[in-house]
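User: Can you fold this complex?
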Amino acid sequence: MPTLVMPRRYGAVNWRGLWTLCLKDLHRARKNFRYSVLGPVVSNLLFLIVFAMAQGRGGPYVGDLTFLQFLVPGLVIFAVCESAYSTSSESLLFDKMEGMIADTLMAPLTPLELTVGYACSSAAMGLITGAAVAFPMLFVVHLPIASLPLILFFAAGGALMHGLLGIIVGLWAERWDHHAAAMTFIVIPFGFLSGTFYSVASLPALAEQVARLNPVFYVIDGFRAGSTGHADGSAITGGIVVTLVVLALAAGAHRLFRIGYKLKP
Amino acid sequence: MSGHPAADRAIPQVRHFGAVNWIGLWTLYYREVRRFVKVATQTVLAPLVTTLLYLAIFVLAIGDPAHKIGDVPFRSFLAPGLIMMAMVQNAFANTSSSIMISKIQGNIVDTLMPPLSPGELTCGFALGGMTRGLAVGFIMWGAMTFLVPVAVHDFLFVLFHAVAASLMLSLLGLIGGIWSEKFDHLAAVTNFIITPFAFLSGTFYSIGGLPPFWHGVAHLNPFFYMIDGFRYGFTGHADGSLTAGLIVLTIVDILLWALAYRMFARGYRLKA
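Assistant: Here's the predicted assembly.
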């Protein structure tokens, strides 16, 4: 009797499908590595050079940190966030516009698996990009690493937060200019105005209060606390805020996949 | 057929034009302008927001209000550089994205088939990109006047450098767009050529503060002259020679124009 091709069986989680979905976006990023990895490395090095030149003096900036020691963690964590965001949002939007999204939706993946798959691959891409951005900078600027767990927690938290936000934007956007608008009017202002480049303690009192309502502030501040020991806010508050925001965004992304928002008729 | 007046009127005639196909040139230019005006949020408003963010960050990070470059306050020094930066990035983006998208989607044939000579193609694209650069610069300047004192010292310098720089980057975008075969290539041109040249040209700092060797290197960068001369037009402060700047920019524009013309004439990566 000839062997019949049987339907593949799996338990509660389709692990192979989940793993394949994760690899899909990582392969795509690898194919476009000039854009996805080298671009951020070069532009962040340029930021570093330009700030070093414009700043001019080498004295202490905050506490006993020089300005560059303060700046490097900000640049690295922002590169993590930006890369995670663009990995998931561009992947979804590209697949939607090219009509290939059906290949992902037809596969036996639950909404939860889709959410986890996209979030994990974009977060991983964010961390890879962040490591690539950090590597050359560490030769130039010495960082007094204070706590590795804090670094890892806030890097992963920031990457997941932006990867999930990227899913939501990728599902919502219908054209590239929607996507660009979300980048210009949400991701970049939240990141730039939350202490990537300066200490929020140096802001006027009202602006400082506003900055502290911004979840990205806690990501950047916690990451900087881990890598330099200097923090403008509390790491515990930061940990709670980041966890809650990640869970809320995950719930939002999961719901969009479940109802098939702009995906299924 | 034989001389019947009604039949003669009904036959469409071949359109005749002289040395320049003015209607075709205008149509190409108009299309290039319409392309960016249609998505003004992305092409005009977004650069404005990004540039104002840069201004906020540099002013907050550098902090010290007494920080001066020569006798110019830092934010008055910075503002013209930021305006110029936005202009050149947008002039570049207009031509490069137009060519790149047309090539990838295959509708570049609609631009190559009409009776447009290589010179008309170069001119239409280049002026379209230049228009976007100037439009963005003008809006940026308007917004900046609310935040930073940007008095105009010499209007002709402002105008010349705005036009020369927008044209230069518009031509570079044209060349980059024709050369690139996928978006990844174009991203490489932006990340490894345009952004470094623009960032390291004294937009954010005075090259007077550089070590002598790098000071010399900075003078080899055409982007330095456009930012320096443009800034002189506003603040009256220049790091380099203004005459050298005028000559360098004119020569670079002519060379780039010739290169773009040659690419269209040969059909480099455009025609089989």
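The longest helix of chain A spans residues 67-98. Chain A touches chain B through 34 residues (CB under 8 Å).
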